[in-house]
Amino acid sequence: MATDFGVTKWDRKDVIKCVEGMFAEWLEARGTIGGFDAAQGAKQVLSFIAQHGSSRFQSLTDSFMRVPNRAGFKRENINGQSEYLILPEIFEGEICRGYSAISVARELRMLGHLKLAEEKNLARKERLPELGRTRVYTIVYDNESELATENAND
Q1: The pTM is what?
Q2: CB-based burial of residue 119 (10 Å sphere; 0-12 exposed, 13-18 middle, 19+ buried)?
Q3: Which of 89, 122, 90, 108 is nearest to 41 (CA)?
Q4: Cystine design at 85: which of 18, 28, 59, 136 (Cβ 3.0–4.6 Å)?
Q5: Per-residue DSSP letter, 23
Q6: What is the pLDDT of residues 57-74, one digit of tens each?
Q7: Which residues contact 79 (CB under 8 A, 6 or more apart)?
Q8: Where are the extended beta strands (E) located within 70-122?
Q9: pLDDT exceeding 70 applies to what percent of the chain?
């Protein structure tokens, strides 16, 4: 605007080129074109799983294993990836604390980590031990590929 009003002596094309370059650098440093909070929330969810995957998730294949302070359940899918079935109250109130759980779930869906229900809900209905049929957020997480991705980004 300053250039348009003659306050500066800059060429309009140079100003636009400079702003585009600054935006590209900012976007590269930011690391995502999505909402920053949602991206940070998705990282928080994956970090929670990396940290607590074997201590807070009850295996669906071992019905005798009891997990104190359970966050959900764990199983392996046909591709050999781990799936974490997270109870909504834990996902929304603990794991996504500080972020909008819906925005985080949408970001996880965009990244390919959230397994959707057939009706396109963010949470799926699953039959769980002791709880019966209940909604859960199903996160597909492969520790080895995630660690390789994180190391490549560092």
Answers
A1: 0.69
A2: exposed
A3: 108
A4: 136
A5: H
A6: 999 987 677 788 999 999
A7: none
A8: 72-76, 82-86, 114-115
A9: 87
Name the residue with tokens 């834990």: 90
Distance, in Å, from the CA atom of 140 to the CA atom of 75, rounded to the nearest integer, reads 10
Using the 8-state DSSP alphabet, how is residue 102 labeled? H
Average pLDDT, the chain: 84
Counting every residue, how long is the chain?
Answer: 154
Q: Which amino acid is at 36?
A: F
32 — pLDDT class (breaks 50, 70, 90) = low
Q: For 33-57, what is each residue's pLDDT tens digit?
A: 556 788 899 999 999 999 998 899 9
- Give the C-alpha separation, 3 to 15, whole Å: 8
| Token duo for residue 5 | 């009003």
Q: Hey, is 141 helix, strand or coil?
A: strand
Look at the block and give the residue holding tokens 């650098």.
25
DSSP-derived letter for residue 30 is: H
Contact assessment for residue 51 and residue 111, using Cβ atoms and an 8 Å cutoff: no
**Alpha carbon 39 to chain centroid distance?**
6
